[in-house]
DNA sequence: GCGCTTTGATTTTTT
DNA sequence: ATCAAAGCGC
């Protein structure tokens, strides 16, 4: 039994999985089988030690990581897996607060404000407390407030610590911000952590309940946790002291989001008895890649040395190349991709990574031009799109009408004659009475219906404005009432119809068609929630909308290359990796230049990128790069200088014109052959596409409906639902991919 | 109150 | 280059 589960672990991994009593720190280098250790450790706990999954919590950095973990655990835990808590800190805390938050006066239907909601609210606060948004960037204030919460200072702590002039300003906004959040029954991202911690501190019954429950608590990506997260982990494992944290200080890349690498040090002082296990064997990369990574990270001074090694072969040299500008760099990538594809690789084996999202543009254009299918992660995030946010705001209002940010967002979308004047007046009333804007409307409407001439509140508003507000209130009321009898999809349809949003999009809005399609995609994503009761479904759906990121929904596709930021790439691996924009000012980024510790973080970011690669790595830079219109020459990244020359091959400067293909091609060819042999012996084909690789925009043929174009593709259970627009009067059809028998046509 | 034009600023990374 | 906020005429 015992040997069964841990059989395929190496001795260190095995030791980590078997250490189940007391605090444990696992330092896991890149590619060292970290996820494997975590899942096997859980499997061992359940299968061998007889711990019920209900008593285990595993917190990961992304939902995607949690999903992967669950998937791998299914064969080990069977149906018991549903009792295992596996999620991000934020979703874990949201769950606790929904369940227990009333103990400290929290509304069960609290809204969750994401980043942009926060900034909206902060702008409004600034107006109210008379802080000029031109002198002080709302974003900067938001980041201070976020910092205060992440470090568990909160308003009081911040007030006590604050010193300089800017702090004074922030404090004024912060105070109002908290009032408005409370008034809106809303929590921001940081509150999810901050309030959970506060709940544990203030309400012993709740604290006891969860401390008793979690006999084993595990934290993944520990190097990227903040003070609040660590405090919560500590708190929950106080009783059993079985806290297992896994991380790699060299991959800490989120200090800007208040992640505190010192947590690793604190862990060792907080738990002096902790066992520390380092996983140093790398199963992922070639010696060449690992060697380059090692040299790269060795230049950091603030680090604990590690001895990473691999028994993999040497592999092929790293390709370093300079191109003239970003478009040429992108073209180089695409040409190489085409070479690799004829050789040994599928498109899904290839990723292109970059420092800033803006760099994806040139890459997309090149892919489009040469017909290379790509999958862009992040960028203009789906849930951040205007139409999706608008619809979400309506749904949030149905769940919680006191949500001021959502109300302000859609009260006049589509236009209903509620303009700035009315809105200003409404804000004033709400402020004076310390109530939400929705309640303010209720008040106005009530006063108006009673026909009181001494109607002080509405005095400043025209009758037609009051009428418009009344109509809006009735709309929300109606939606809320009807929502009880509908399912989530029906509710969405009702919202779209009754609010006039559908008509607005289709008939008047710019790019209406495209945006309507996004709405359709969003609507389809609600499908997963139909099994629950409407109320529960609505809350869960809204929560996932706020808490789910783009990497989370990333599909493993064999038929497209992946374009992704270095940050998002953490935790992923690809046989072939291109890192573009290896230039001073970009990687390392300009903003890190004057701070040595930020510079070290840039280096770690680069290290993360390099260590994503299994077999082939390309490091590219452009001689000059466009920046907001103009274009400026740049210098090669200092990180390139850290990589030993013997690990590098340079195709030669790709000067304009001429026969630049020849030399490069021969290098590529030879290298691919080497790799091909290895891959064949591995016998590992990680993808077996049973279904045709059909994606949005593809031309397809159906036996009955003929030719059409794929409008959208949405996961649906283990299958995909594709929406296809067919020609010749067959119209738009929704089909399940596995049954549709679609054939791709060119 | 609405919609057009002008002006001005602008984020690096994301749960 | 791009987008949001402010200003202005209807």
Quick structural overview:
Helices cover 47% and strands 15% of the residues.
Mean pLDDT: 86
**Main sheet: strand order:** 11-12-10-13-14-9-17
By secondary-structure content and strand pairing, the structural class works out as alpha/beta
The number of strands is: 22
Distance between the termini: 53 Å
Largest sheet, described in full? Answer: 7 strands, parallel
| Shape, per Cα inertia axes | globular
**Portion of residues within helices:** 40-55%
Percent range for β-strand residues: 5-15%
If helices are DSSP runs of H or I spanning 4 or more residues, what is the number of helices? 29
Question: What can you tell me about this protein's structure?
Answer:
- The protein is an alpha/beta fold.
- The chain has 29 helices and 22 strands.
- It has a 7-stranded parallel β-sheet.
- The radius of gyration is 28 Å and the shape is globular.
- It starts with a helix and ends with a strand.
- Residues 653-692 have low confidence and may be disordered.
- The structure holds a DNA duplex (15 and 10 nucleotides).
């Amino acid at each position: 039994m015992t040997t069964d589960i841990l059989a395929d672990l190496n001795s260190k991994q095995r030791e980590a999985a078997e250490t189940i009593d007391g605090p444990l720190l696992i330092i896991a280098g890149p590619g060292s089988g970290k996820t494997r250790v975590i899942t096997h450790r859980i499997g061992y706990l359940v299968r061998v030690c007889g711990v019920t999954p209900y008593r285990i919590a595993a917190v990961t950095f992304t939902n995607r990581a949690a999903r992967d973990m669950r998937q791998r655990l299914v064969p080990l835990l069977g149906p018991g897996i549903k009792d295992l808590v596996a999620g991000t800190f934020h979703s874990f805390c949201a769950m606790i607060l929904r369940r227990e938050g009333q103990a400290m006066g929290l509304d069960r239907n609290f809204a969750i404000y994401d980043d942009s909601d926060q900034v909206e609210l902060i702008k409004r606060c600034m107006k109210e407390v008379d802080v000029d948004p031109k002198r002080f960037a709302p974003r900067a204030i938001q980041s201070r407030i976020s910092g205060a919460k992440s470090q568990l200072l909160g308003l009081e702590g911040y007030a006590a610590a604050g010193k300089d002039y800017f702090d004074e300003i922030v404090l004024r906004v912060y105070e109002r911000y908290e009032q408005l959040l409370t008034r809106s029954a809303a929590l921001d991202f940081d509150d999810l952590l901050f309030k959970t911690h506060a709940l544990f501190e203030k309400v012993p019954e709740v604290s006891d309940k969860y401390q008793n429950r979690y006999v084993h608590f595990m934290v993944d990506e520990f190097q990227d946790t903040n003070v609040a997260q660590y405090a919560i982990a500590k708190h929950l494992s106080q009783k059993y002291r079985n806290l297992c944290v896994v991380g790699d200080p060299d991959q800490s890349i989120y200090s800007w989001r208040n992640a505190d690498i010192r947590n690793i040090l604190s862990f060792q002082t907080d738990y002096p008895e902790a066992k520390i296990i380092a996983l140093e064997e790398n199963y992922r990369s070639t010696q060449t890649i690992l060697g380059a990574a090692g040299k790269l990270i060795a230049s950091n001074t603030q680090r604990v040395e590690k001895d990473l090694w691999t028994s993999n072969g040497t592999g092929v040299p790293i390709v370093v190349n300079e191109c003239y500008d970003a478009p040429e760099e992108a073209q180089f990538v695409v040409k190489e991709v085409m070479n690799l594809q004829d050789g040994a690789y599928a498109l899904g084996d290839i990723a292109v990574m970059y420092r800033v999202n803006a760099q994806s543009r040139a890459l997309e254009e090149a892919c489009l031009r040469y017909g290379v299918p790509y999958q862009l992660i992040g960028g203009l995030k789906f849930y951040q799109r205007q139409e999706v946010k608008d619809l979400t705001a309506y749904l949030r209002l149905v769940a919680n009408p006191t949500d001021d940010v959502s109300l302000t967002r859609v009260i006049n979308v589509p236009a209903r004659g509620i303009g700035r004047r009315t809105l200003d007046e409404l804000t004033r009333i709400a402020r004076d009475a310390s109530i939400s804007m929705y309640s303010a409307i209720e008040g106005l409407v009530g006063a108006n219906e009673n026909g009181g001439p001494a109607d002080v509140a509405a005095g400043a508003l025209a009758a037609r404005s009051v009428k418009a507000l009344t109509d809006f209130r009735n709309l929300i009321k109606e939606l809320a009432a009807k929502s009880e009898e509908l399912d989530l999809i029906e509710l969405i349809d009702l919202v779209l119809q009754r609010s006039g949003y559908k008509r607005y999009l289709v008939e008047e809005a710019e790019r209406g068609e495209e945006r309507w399609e996004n709405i359709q995609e969003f609507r389809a994503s609600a499908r997963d929630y139909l099994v629950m009761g409407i109320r529960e479904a609505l809350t869960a759906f809204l929560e996932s909308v706020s808490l789910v990121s783009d990497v989370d929904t990333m599909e493993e596709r064999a038929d497209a290359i992946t374009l992704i930021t270095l940050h998002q790439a953490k935790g992923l691996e690809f046989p072939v990796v291109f890192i573009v924009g290896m230039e001073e000012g970009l990687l390392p980024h300009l903003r890190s230049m004057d701070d040595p510790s930020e510079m070290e973080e840039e280096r770690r970011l680069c290290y993360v990128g390099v260590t994503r690669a299994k077999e082939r790595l390309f490091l590219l830079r452009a001689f000059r790069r466009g920046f907001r219109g103009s274009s400026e020459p740049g210098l090669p990244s200092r990180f390139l200088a850290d990589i030993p020359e013997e690990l590098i091959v340079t195709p030669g400067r790709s000067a304009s014109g001429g026969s630049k293909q020849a030399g490069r091609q021969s290098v590529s060819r030879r290298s691919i052959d080497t790799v091909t042999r290895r891959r064949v012996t591995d016998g590992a084909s990680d993808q077996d596409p049973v279904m045709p690789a059909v994606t949005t925009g593809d031309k397809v043929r159906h036996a009955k409906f003929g030719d059409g174009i794929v409008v959208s593709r949405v996961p649906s259970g283990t299958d995909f639902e594709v929406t296809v627009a067919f020609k010749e009067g067959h119209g738009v059809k929704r089909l399940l991919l596995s049954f549709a028998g679609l054939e791709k046509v060119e």
